[in-house]
Amino acid sequence: MTKLERIRNFAIIAHIDHGKSTLADRLLEQTATISKRDLQEQVLDNMDLERERGITIKSHPVRMDYTAADGQYYQLNLIDTPGHVDFTYEVSRALSACEGALLIIDATQGVQAQTVANVALAFRQNLTIIPIINKIDLPASNPEMCYEQMEEALMIPREDAILVSAKEGIGIAELLEAIVKRVPPPALKEYKEPSCLIFDSNYDAYRGVVTYVRVFSGEFRRGLKARIFSNGIESEIKEVGIFKPGMIACDVLRAGEVGYMIPNLKSPADTKMGDTITDSKNPCKEALPGFREVNPMVFSGIYPIDSADYEQLKLSMSKLQLNDAAFKYQTETSAALGFGFRCGFLGLLHMEIIQERLRREYNMDIIATYPSVIYHVYLHDGNMLHVDNPVHMPDPTLVDRIEEPLIKARIMVPTSYIGDVMALVMSKRGLCTSTEAVDGAHVIIEAELPMHEILIDFHDKLKSITRGYGSFDYELSGYQAGKLVKLDILVNGEPVDAFSSIVHIDHAHFRGNNLCSRLKDLIPPQMFQIAIQGAVGGKIVSRETIRQLRKNVIAKCYGGDITRKRKLLDKQKEGKKRMKEIGRVYIPQEAFVEVLKATDNK
Questions:
Q1: Do the beta carbons of residue 284 and residue 194 sit within 8 Å?
Q2: Which one of 136, 153, 175, 238 has the fewest CB atoms closer than 10 angstroms to its CB?
Q3: Between 281 and 326, the higher pLDDT residue
């Protein structure tokens, strides 16, 4: 049994790709938590996708045993957190389980937008922050720039920083000593009733729901009847244990410790991240602070390319949701694509990850529709609708106004790119509200933009304009009325729902032209002329025409009067006209795939 004053709980926070997982590897190696034989890069990132992209998608806890320079034994509980803005809630829950945070700053890039956001989260939780300047072994490293940015942007004194190279193992011993000395031990809560925070959960096909917990008071052991605070569900605890880094069962989890708990629950919907677990016989009076429901912000339709795979896709999605509670889906039908699902995601990266996991882990061939956000549509009769799918947009004559979600973006760029970035923000219907100098070479631009405008190519364009040095972070900041319209794509006068989208009226012509020109190249010619049109309500805003396949009906007319040829041509024209009225245009599946996977659309 480890005394409370010998326990240290801390998380690793940083901007994406600043070396969190590599530092975690070195800490595991230095404390002999994992043998050199079993060590591999990004050992806590257990998804292939995490390793390939070099990003952390899920929080990963691990317990390390450490004997400090003073000869005392310490229990170090580390939680490795995701770095991307889509997973901010997951980071905040992980920080709620800790007393300290290791803040990593890349010595070659300095403070980035997500670094500032994560520090704000840590300060809000009153955590002790240990700043780490990583990658000092690289020729391009500039610790002096990092010191200056820390003091200016983060208000952290330079003396607190530790110089480290996670790749080469430089400074790891000093870091472990700093953790022991600076991070405070867990404080006991005033109340005696058992309580623990769920900061993550997973699903095991054989054992059901596995909750990752931090115990704040009391103790939890196998056989205890536990209660989930938010919904009152009670179940017996089948197993408790710790991560080293694999799951190892133990007798009891005590106050201050981090581990896992397996209640007798079969549905992941029964547990929510940020919820509180307590003893059913001696329940706590109030929940641990910070719990809130995670709501999706970006929506997209996902359909199987082969309609016979629908049931398999449904099963795959249900399995995926068991491991990712933030992913929501419901069935929907498209006249063009058949049966599929309307899916909700935390952000664009989350959407990419889900689609990639469906393709890789479940071998599904899928097609995704144009991403959308939740619009508030106010009708003339006073009702308000939440619309996340353009197909459900009511008739324009019934609509009073449409409000779209706004985001508050924090963009960090080198000073020389301010003009280009401001131009990018304005081209996306945004407004730059303030600029703040971080040091002599960098500036933070705060801007308000419609969320829909950053869904497709904003991040790519920002990186391109700033030659890779720009970074941005955002949070939802409310709704604002805008001149928004539903853009339909008509093929031979018939709307194709898969290509419908909600756009700003100023962008309708550009987006319509873009889609029509792509479809013109992808739809094969028919025996009659096909018009591809972009329409807003009853108004046509763009058009392309696919030429008809022509048969030379006058080939047999050799000689004779011209009226014979005209008669045959008029007869052909009548036939084409009748064919156009009753004919149906076949749009091949490849056309949907090519158009919908294109990411250069407005």
A1: yes
A2: 238
A3: 281
